[in-house]
Amino acid sequence: MCEQRLNFLRIQLGRKATLQEATTLSLGERVDPEPLYQRGTVFAFAGKNEAAVHLIGTAIERNYCAYSSLEKDSLLDKLRDTAEFANLLSSARVCQQPVLAQMRQGR
């Protein structure tokens, strides 16, 4: 999976990537939000923070909570010290809470 992300990055670095392009690339992925997250990490690595935040935020809104991934994914290092990243992390935590509560009830 990481190799696919890096190949995508190589393509994107060849030209200017805009928020509109990031959204357009993701239109076909309405069912599974994980590819939105993955593309967002690639944009973050490329320094395209606005597109990265948009894609990752959309993935979280679509219930790809990704809290642990956000904390550990090295492709997000350039984004990690921003207020936008803190907001994504907070949203991911909120997204996870119902799932964690349900797991606790099932014990």
Describe this structure in words.
With 107 residues, the protein is mainly α. It has one domain. Helices cover 68% and strands 0% of the residues. The chain has helices at 2-13, 19-25, 34-45, 49-61, 67-72, 83-105. Helix 1 (2-13) packs across helix 3 (34-45), helix 3 (34-45) runs antiparallel to helix 4 (49-61) and helix 4 runs parallel beside helix 6. The longest helix has 23 residues, at 83-105. The protein is elongated and about 40 Å long.
Spell out the key features of this protein:
mainly alpha, 6 helices, single chain, 107 residues
Count the E strands: 0
Radius of gyration: 14 Å
Strand portion, in percent?
under 5%
Largest sheet, in brief, is: none
Total tally of structural domains? 1
What structural class do the secondary elements suggest?
Answer: mainly alpha
Shape: elongated
Question: What share of residues is helical?
Answer: 55-70%
Mean pLDDT: 81
Order of helices and strands: HHHHHH
Uncertain segments are none
Intertermini distance:
33 Å
* Count of discrete alpha- or pi-helical segments spanning 4 or more residues: 6
